[in-house]
Amino acid sequence: MQTRSRVIKPSRLRERRKKLRQIKMGLAAFLLVVIFFGIVWLSRLQQIRLTNVITFGNNVVLADDLKSVAINDMSGYYWHLFPKNNAFIYPAGKIEHDILAAFPRIKSVSVAFETTETLRIEVVERQPLALWCQPVQNGSDQCYFIDDQGYIFAEAPDFEGDVFTKYYGLVSTDTPIGSRFLDTDRLANLQTFVSAVAKMGLPPTELHATSTAEYELDLDGGGKILFTDNHPLTEVLSNLDTVLGSLPLGSKTLHFLEYVDLRFNNKVFYKTSTTTKSSSL
Question: In order of start, what are the domains of the chain with their CATH numbers?
């Protein structure tokens, strides 16, 4: 007895394989859609939504103002699907950027979730080192706080006495907040110089930067010291001390001093109420 084998034509075999591929692709697409919308559903769970904001390190900037920036940046959805206040995909970088832009007083900021429902904002506020001031017509000068990096960050109130060193010059704008007066090292050296001059018996009142390297330090007695930081300020101070020691009345009674010019390294010019002299050191 002969057996007859069934022969499938190549065209029908290709058709079956094509249908099988279509079924597999359909199932894969369906599975991807289910997974995608499952992720969307999970991302909206209330247990992982940042609905509470706490702040640390802020003493002057109000906590409510910081919270307002964070809440605003976390409102809405990504592509109308994923909530921006989800603890795992919230816009941390944008919140930090917007806080720094909104509050010049803040030096640095970091955000992280304390729990999956609570966002923690930690800031470091700038501390005033000195004042940068600009003359105002028919009124007292308008002064602003600067920090140890020379960054102008807030308006300053009127102070009684010489609480802070007053700096002038270099910043040419009516809205100086956010500008930089001098770099960190230069400002630190000037602060040291001003303090040293005060210890020599020459109380300073304000310092004018006539350029990024030349300065005029006004004294309480009405005189001034002209100097440059193109030379090490330790050398400038040494030259000043030498000149003061050579004056007839000594360094303790210098109300007669009109100016000392220390801009020329080892050549010093000075003027008193009675004489003008130069001295080679």
Answer: 46-125 (3.10.20.310), 130-280 (3.40.50.11690)
pTM score? 0.78
Beta-strand relationship, 130-134 and 142-146: antiparallel
89: which DSSP letter? T
pLDDT at 281: 54
Strand intervals (E) in the chain: 52-56, 77-78, 82-83, 106-115, 118-125, 130-134, 142-146, 152-155, 166-168, 204-209, 214-219, 224-228, 257-264, 267-272, 276-280
What pLDDT, on the 0 to 100 scale, is given for residue 251?
A: 45
As a whole number of angstroms, the distance between CA 111 and CA 15 comes to: 58
Which residues of the chain are under the pLDDT cut of 70?
1-10, 160-161, 248-256, 274-281
In the prediction, which pLDDT does 70 show? Answer: 96
Cα separation, 92 vs 119, whole angstroms: 10
